[in-house]
Recover the amino acids of this structure.
């Protein structure tokens, strides 16, 4: 055992670090999906595309400013705002028209996925691109150096999560959101502007995904097809945590993120994704509503 | 009344199938091959509609079943040197097992969770094909042309990829699927499936074991999708991962909804129209997905019942 630790300890430590960074980013993306499901009772298949747009807008901001730090700061503001705008537009002209019917929404958001993906391909082209990190420094551990920017990604994601949590419990918007989630009809009769809340939640969900996209581009390349993988991972997270439960989403993001890190480092990323799905199957067999899910029929 | 609508609908479908039979003598080569392809894909859509249109369960992972049948048949021919019929049966048996196992897990969930679970299992199946690439030839896929025997009819040998063989086999498959779907829909089992679609808890209250009926529908739909996949492998002598990708799970949703979910013949129309639409657009731009996406959105907003669904509501009340 001790010899195994001596041999593989540094690798395990690296896997844990990478896994934690993944977990924070994943929590941010999945939280967006989970909020939309919780309040609006719909599944947004185009959620991964909002993440992809965040990443792609960040190149755009980088090209605009030609400076990594300013580009990054501009993207932090611009990407979630633009994606939020697209989300509000889709809510008003697509989702509201089909009355948020669950299955119609799935079909409509699949359509949205194709439209966003193809338009991105037309406007930005097919090649994958990376963006320089806004801050570059290394943290030297006894065994290896680690990119400091990755820790900033984790920190900023944590801030994002904290922000959403404060918004939910402290603000009037959060109160309205919780009221709408608990009972739409009662919320309406008490004068909650539920239509506006729906639009706001959809924009918030998309904005969180876009924020994650901005944070991630300096670590990995971005292209128009990058949205599918985070979408599937967030689904896994949201199912394991229980649809609509914020606490469950964050706990599950850590389970999946860290195990993904470990399996990817020691074996292969593809295997990690396959095992995560099997894990979902097990959770569903034991507890169909997820770890923290409400028991809804 | 029901007997009358059964006769009407069999006559209607028979007419369309007869038309397809006659078309093969008229069509130019290019369209001849397109229509063969449409008939195989439409069979897949008919199988899909069995679950979506009649039982009300939407799956986002049906490519798994199609690809399972296709790979079982293809790998069976490649490694086990199965005959064409043997490969078809092997593909069917393999998908039967897969869909049964999958159903036992996935049907523990319902509604939105069911959708997500099907999506994820479909993706895992796709990833497994890539992961075991030494056995499955990964992304490249493989051709069956050199491994597949010949079909012997009246002492004459034909290739399976011969255009006439292809066309008529596809037509036989489609005919079988339409006939089986129609008969099931007019049987008591079909009525119960529709009852589940309309109101699941009330059906349960009436004393039916909803779980078993849903499992039946899923296994039937999955296995038929697998047979369509196996047939595709035989007639087009190619097996590849594109048929396991998520796009291939979304396509039958589009075909079914456009043609009319919950109508037996609808998926055939939906498949034909989308096939030619994509074909025409591909000639203009490679970015046909933009159009697919736009059609999906516009259709779900303004035309949710699809072509045959609308026709049924207006004029053809007897349509199954």
């Amino acid at each position: 055992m001790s010899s195994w630790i001596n041999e593989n300890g540094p690798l395990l430590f690296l896997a844990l670090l990478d896994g934690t960074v993944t977990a924070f980013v994943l929590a941010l993306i999945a939280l967006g999906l989970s909020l939309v499901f919780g309040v609006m009772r719909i599944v947004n298949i185009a959620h991964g595309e909002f993440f992809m747009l965040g990443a792609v807008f960040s190149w755009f901001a980088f090209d605009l400013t030609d400076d990594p730090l300013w580009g990054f700061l501009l993207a932090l503001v611009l990407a979630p705002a633009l994606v939020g705008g697209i989300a509000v537009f889709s809510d008003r002209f697509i989702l509201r028209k089909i009355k948020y019917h669950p299955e119609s929404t799935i079909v409509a958001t699949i359509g949205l996925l194709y439209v966003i993906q193809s338009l991105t391909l037309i406007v930005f082209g097919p090649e994958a691109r990376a963006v320089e990190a806004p801050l570059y420094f290394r943290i030297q551990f006894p065994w290896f150096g680690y990119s400091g920017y990755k820790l900033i990604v984790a920190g900023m994601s944590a801030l994002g999560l904290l922000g959403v949590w404060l918004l939910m419990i402290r603000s009037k918007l959060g109160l309205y959101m919780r009221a709408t989630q608990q009972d739409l009809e009662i919320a309406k009769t008490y004068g909650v502007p539920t239509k506006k809340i729906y639009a706001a939640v959809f924009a918030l969900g998309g904005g969180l995904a876009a924020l994650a996209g901005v944070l991630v581009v300096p670590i990995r390349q971005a292209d128009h097809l990058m949205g599918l993988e985070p979408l599937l991972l967030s689904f896994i997270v949201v199912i394991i945590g229980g649809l609509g439960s914020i606490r469950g989403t964050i706990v599950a993001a850590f389970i999946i993120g860290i195990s993904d890190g470990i399996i990817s480092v020691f074996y292969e990323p593809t295997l990690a994704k396959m095992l995560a799905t099997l894990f979902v199957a097990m959770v569903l067999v034991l507890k169909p509503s997820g770890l923290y899910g409400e028991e809804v029929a | 009344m029901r007997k009358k609508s059964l006769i009407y609908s069999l006559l209607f479908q028979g007419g369309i199938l007869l038309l397809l039979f006659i078309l093969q003598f008229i069509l130019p080569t290019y369209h001849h091959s397109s229509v063969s392809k449409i008939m195989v894909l439409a069979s897949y859509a008919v199988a899909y509609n069995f679950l979506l249109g009649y039982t009300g369960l939407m799956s986002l992972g049906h490519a798994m079943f199609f690809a399972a049948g296709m790979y079982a048949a293809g790998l069976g021919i490649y490694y086990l040197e199965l005959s064409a019929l043997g490969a078809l049966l092997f593909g069917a048996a393999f998908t039967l097992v897969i869909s049964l196992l999958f159903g036992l897990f996935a049907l523990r969930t319902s509604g939105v969770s069911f959708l997500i679970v099907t999506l994820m299992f479909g993706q895992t199946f796709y990833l497994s094909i890539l992961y075991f690439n030494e056995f499955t030839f990964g992304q490249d896929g493989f051709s069956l042309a050199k491994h597949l025997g010949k079909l012997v009819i009246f002492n004459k040998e034909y290739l399976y990829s011969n255009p006439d063989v292809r066309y008529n086999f596809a037509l036989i498959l489609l005919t079988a699927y339409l006939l089986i779907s129609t008969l099931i829909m007019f049987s008591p089992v079909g009525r119960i499936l529709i009852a589940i679609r309309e109101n699941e808890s009330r059906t349960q209250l009436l004393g039916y074991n909803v779980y078993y009926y849903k499992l039946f529908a899923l296994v039937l739909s999955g296995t038929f999708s697998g047979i369509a996949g196996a047939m595709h492998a035989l007639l087009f002598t190619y097996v590849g991962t594109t048929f396991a990708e998520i796009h291939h799970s979304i396509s039958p949703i589009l075909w079914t909804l456009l043609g009319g979910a919950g109508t037996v013949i609808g998926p055939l129309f939906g498949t034909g129209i989308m096939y030619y639409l994509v074909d025409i657009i591909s000639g203009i731009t490679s970015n046909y997905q933009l159009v697919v996406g736009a059609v999906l959105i516009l259709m779900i907003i303004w035309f949710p019942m699809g072509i045959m669904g609308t026709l049924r509501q207006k004029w053809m009340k007897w349509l199954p």
Remarks:
- The interface with chain A takes residues 58, 60, 105-106, 108-109, 111-113, 115-117, 119-121, 123-124, 127-128, 130-131, 201, 246, 250, 253, 257, 287, 289-290, 292-297, 300-301, 304 of chain B (CB under 8 Å).
